[in-house]
Amino acid sequence: MRRRLLKGSALVAAACVTSLLATLAPSASASAAPAAPDAPPAAQQAGHGDRPALRRVGYFTQWGVYGRDYQVQDLDTSGTAARLTHLNYAFGNIDKSGKCFLTPVPGESDPWADYQRPLDAANSVDGTADTDTQALAGNFNQIKELKAKHRGLKAMISLGGWSWSTHFSDAALTPASRKALVTSCIDLYIKGNLPKDGARGGDGAAEGVFDGIDLDWEWPGSEGDADTVYRPEDKQNFTALVREFRSQLDALGKQRRTHYELSAFVPTADTKIDAGFEVRKIMKDFDFVNLQGYDFHVSGEKKTAQQSALFARNDFSVHGTVQSWLKRGAPARKLVVGMPFYGQGWTGVTGGGDGLGQPAAGPAPATWAAGYADYKELKPLVQAGKFKVHRDLLGGHAWLFDGTTLWTYDDPLVLAAKGAYVRARGLGGVMAWSLDADTADGELYRALDRGLGRR
């Protein structure tokens, strides 16, 4: 882990964030930010002077439509869709042959959620029920309806993720394999040529749903999930793969007189950046990258710690991540800062005090996964008085502690401060993982929007 100290302009930025937090927070144990009025649609937001509009990115999870019952329609009713510029759909997968695919494979691909599942009128963005004869249904059709209602919104297909980066290294290995991968992904998601299944799918069925591709290879050149292949040559191969995506997207865009965007999710650790990313080269081809601004520490560790601090001494932080990418040649305007809409939690915490930095027995119990809780799951615990909110105003982060269990998370105050940081530093915008963890009224994204400054 690279050790970082706050100095120079970082101290100034820290002071500004501290001031904002102090202004917004009624006390050090406050649990909610003041309500903000609705933001204008993304299409109506204009930049100041020559500065481009800040990106407001959010991930929509394919599986969230099941247990969490978070539908595309919820993006509209919560007000979040009006604030977004980019909706990232998680995830698309790559098969053993090195191509994008969308056929029914449990745990690997879910065309039912993507484009086959019919929605009734009550759960549809446009209030119309899907029929048995239409070629496109499911999440893809709802995204298309959402874009029709929010004209400034772009949708990106995110490829990979932690669990589905398995075959990226193999697919990127040669010029021929890279070309085959990119061609298959563009054919499936940009041209919308879906597998035919009864009335659903067919050539062009999903055309117009996606406006670009987001690469979530975790990680080129370094360890990721247990079955994910990685090689030393991934670093150069990733550069070549990005170039291939850019070339093919531009060629199609020229034919169709449009620009297809290309982005990526990229890591915070210096070792992972240096192992997998030729920063100056790839940033020429990316429209923007989403920086990992969370999971700095996770519930599997033996001691409690912050997972998403804005500033930190001798530890990972959002500011440290931004500086790592800047010093390697990434333009500030292309750096979009990731924010967590969930908490990392420990239980069996001993040592007293406020709980941070103390030994723990293991991950805290939660609804969907031990040690991982959506913000909308944590908020009622605070409201019921079961947890006290603690804040590090200089560090720009918060955590909950009840004497035994600790959750480190971002609440509306922290997110507003981070939005202000992004704007003050001239960065490219904000990204949230994931939108289904927000409240029904979009409280967290509203706070981010407030921090960025509505315009």
TrEMBL record:
Pfam families noted in UniProt: Glyco_hydro_18
Which EC class heads this enzyme's classification? Answer: hydrolase
Positions in coiled-coil regions: none
Q: Where is this region: Disordered?
A: 31-51
Give the Enzyme Commission number.
3.2.1.14
Its UniProt entry gives the catalysed reaction(s) as: Random endo-hydrolysis of N-acetyl-beta-D-glucosaminide (1->4)-beta-linkages in chitin and chitodextrins
Keyword line? Carbohydrate metabolism, Chitin degradation, Glycosidase, Hydrolase, Polysaccharide degradation, Signal
Superkingdom field: Bacteria
What GO molecular function annotations does the UniProt record carry, in alphabetical order?
hydrolase activity
Q: Where is the signal peptide?
A: 1-32
Q: Where is the GH18 domain?
A: 54-455
Query: Low complexity: which segments have biased composition?
Result: 31-46
As for family, the record states: Belongs to the glycosyl hydrolase 18 family.
Any idea what this protein is called?
chitinase
- Species in which this protein is naturally found: Streptomyces cremeus
Q: What is the lineage of its organism?
A: Bacteria, Bacillati, Actinomycetota, Actinomycetes, Kitasatosporales
